[in-house]
Amino acid sequence: MLLSELKLGRPLEVYINREGYNYRVVSKIEYTEPGCVCVSLIASGKRVFQFLETDIVDIVYQEQDRMWKWSNVKGAIVAVEEDRMHGFFSDEYGENYNRRNAFRMYLGKELMLRYKVTDKRRLKELDEKENNTSSQTRYNYDSRSDELMGDRFRWVDCLGFIRDISEIGVGIYSNEKFLPDDEIAFEFLSDVGKIECKAMIVRMRDNVSGVFHNYYGCRFIETSRNLTKYLYEQQRIQLQNANNYIKRN
Questions:
Q1: Which of 78, 97, 116 is the endpoint of a domain?
Q2: Cβ distance 96 to 54 under 8 Å?
Q3: What is the CATH number of the domain that holds 26?
Q4: Which residues have C-beta within 8 Å of that of residue 79, sequence separation ≥ 6?
Q5: Backbone torsion region of residue 53, taken as left when φ is above 0, otherwise alpha when ψ lies between -120 and 50, otherwise beta
Q6: How many CA atoms within 13 Å lie on the side-chain side of 66?
Q7: Range with the poorest average pLDDT among 71-85, 154-168, 223-237
Q8: Which residue range forms the structural domain that includes residue 204?
């Protein structure tokens, strides 16, 4: 598939590696032409994202059950009929892509997760649970929100269990009831230093065994630069151990 064949209105995933930090954003396809696809301007408030020459940019497109990936594309702000958009450029055919082919490592680590709650119904539920002294969840009310946002929010810290992790996502268990598109954050220590991650919930299922009742598949939005190095080192160790086992037997 070529970029010009992508369907208007469909989402396009954009993966950006900048100086070792990894970011993921999603925007809507607005325009295509040979060698180019344009999406709605990627911005936060009034701040428009600016691509750098040193950025390593990959884009992923999904249609039904198939996915395609274009690696090392060039990203820039372009004008299309007087509208500003972000454009991505490549004359190559997209390669068939499967997220599950990414190296996933079993982590098996219990840690604290943090997420932000703004929905009034969920805030009320948190208020009702707050007096439960046996809960492993901590609710932190920030009074500054009344002045800055005119509404309440809570940063919620809850116990979680990281099952496995890859460059693109993580599988976690928790007793909290997350919703699709909820964002969570966590950090853990490794041989290469502290690793910080922010991810979005993309799928969920009930967990019928163990102390945690819910399982969530999450896709990374942002990770610290050493996650890739950590996974590479762990993969190298696993391959080395496998080779040593084969030689001994």
A1: 97
A2: no
A3: 2.30.110
A4: 85
A5: alpha
A6: 7
A7: 223-237
A8: 105-128+154-235
Q: What angle do CA 60, 62, 68 make, to 5 degrees?
A: 50
Say if CB 74 and CB 89 are below 8 A apart.
Answer: yes
Q: What is the per-residue burial (b if ≥16 Cβ within 10 Å, else e) of 25-36?
A: bebebbbbeeeb
Q: Is 241 helix (H, G, I), strand (E, B) or coil?
A: helix
Residue with token string 């999904």 = 62
Q: Count structural domains, the chain.
A: 2
Does residue 155 surpass a pLDDT of 60?
Answer: yes
Q: Is the pLDDT of residue 141 over 60?
A: no
pLDDT tens for each residue of 15-66 = 888 876 778 889 999 999 999 999 999 987 788 999 998 888 999 999 887 8
Name the strand (E) or helix (H) holding 121.
helix 120-129
Which tokens sit at 154? Answer: 């809570």
Question: How many of the other CB atoms lie within 10 Å of CB of 12?
Answer: 23
The DSSP line for 165-227 is E-SSEEEEEESS---TT-EEEEEEEETTEEEEEEEEEEEEEE--SSS--EEEEEEEEEE-THH
> What is the rounded distance in angstroms from the CA atom of residue 174 to the CA atom of residue 49?
34
pTM of the predicted model over 0.70: no
Q: Does 59 reside within a domain?
A: yes
